[in-house]
Amino acid sequence: MSALPFADRTDAGERLADLLEDRGVSADRVLAIPRGGLPVGRAVADALSIPLDVIVARKVGAPDNPELAIGAVGADGSLWRNDALIHQLNVPEAYVESRAAREAQAAREKRDRYRGSRGPLDLAGEAALIVDDGIATGATAVACIRQARAGGARRVALAAPVAPPEVVADLETEADDVLALVTPADFGAVGRFYRSFDPVADEVAMGYLDG
């Protein structure tokens, strides 16, 4: 890769919006995955002239490697399990259940902190577009897709600036549409594809919801 494709998350969001328009992907609402997904989601929502909200999920990490996702859980309790990895690592079922419950509670708290005084998110009959700043394993994306479906969305699309091709293929079994601007075989990490990829503080991320 000779040059980094994205200047920052806003640049990535603007370019992602162009791709969505070119592909004819429409939605009633953009659901950004905080925190890094919010600057991307704001640019997409503005370009498509649709509302921006959040959808929250948390990774369920392995016992001895919390960065390794053996599953993910949404704020509504929607759980995705990597049963093959759980079996391979011989993870006790009691651990999966207790960790998932803990992460679901953390996801609910984060959702409530971000949405503040807004009423419950109602996706009944809507076409939802889930957006993040990049997809690595796809674990939290799956939990978010399932959460949107459980919330009544009639159609769920997922879009991100960058994702590994094999993860995109897997996610196509979960979402109605999956779009990524860059799908490198030598993925590595999301931040590799941005010139500026500083962490987004909660206060800054929440500001994007105000437009």
UniProtKB/TrEMBL annotation:
It comes from Halalkalicoccus jeotgali (strain DSM 18796 / CECT 7217 / JCM 14584 / KCTC 4019 / B3). Keywords: Glycosyltransferase, Transferase. Pfam families: Pribosyltran. InterPro entries: PRTase-like (IPR029057), PRTase_dom (IPR000836). This is Phosphoribosyltransferase. Signal peptide: none annotated. One of its GO terms (molecular function) is glycosyltransferase activity. Residues 17-179 form the Phosphoribosyltransferase domain. Gene3D superfamilies: 3.40.50.2020, PRTase-like.
